[in-house]
Design brief:
Order of helices and strands: HEEEEEEEEEH
Largest sheet: 4 strands, antiparallel
Strand content: 25-35%
Distance between the termini: 36 Å
Number of helices: 2
Mean pLDDT: 84
Number of strands: 9
Low-confidence stretches: none
Strand order of the largest sheet: 5-8-7-6
Oligomer: single chain
Structural class: mainly beta
Length: 140
């Protein structure tokens, strides 16, 4: 499908700094018209026409609040910073039990260990101590 559109596709790498919009057809609605961005090589703001925007920056999505100036868009994001590891199944182990494990809080070390077996035999482990609270302002 993309092959048919290759002459119409242009990849632009940059950092979004704003979203432009116009009043929509209904009262109180707005329609995205373009994205303002800067590139790694220039602080000059460029404009990319758009009629749809997808914000997919994970925990950093809250930065998009600043792009929609005056719109009232709120993307509340906060959480806990924590370490995670993936343990690969040793060849000597035939099967990893598919049971998730949730351990109680250990306030001495700030841990809240969670263990998730994956279908491919790996085990994802998170909540390994030293977890700091991260505010929306810190993520921005």
């Amino acid at each position: 499908m993309l092959e048919k559109q290759k002459d119409r596709i242009q990849v632009v790498q940059g950092t979004c700094v704003g979203i432009e919009s116009d009043q929509g057809s209904e009262r109180g609605s707005r329609k995205v018209t373009s994205i303002q961005y800067t590139t790694k090589t220039s602080d000059e703001i460029s404009v990319l026409p758009a009629d749809c925007v997808v914000v997919s920056a994970g925990p950093w999505s809250c930065a998009a609040e600043d792009w929609f100036r005056g719109s009232g868009v709120e993307l509340p994001m906060e959480g806990v910073k924590s370490t995670s590891i993936v343990w690969k199944q040793p060849e000597s182990v035939d099967k990893v039990d598919a049971t998730a494990l949730f351990c109680g809080e250990d306030n001495r070390f700030g841990t809240h260990l969670e263990v998730y077996p994956r279908p491919d035999g790996e085990i994802y482990i998170c909540g390994i101590g030293g977890s700091d609270y991260i505010s929306k302002e810190a993520l921005k």
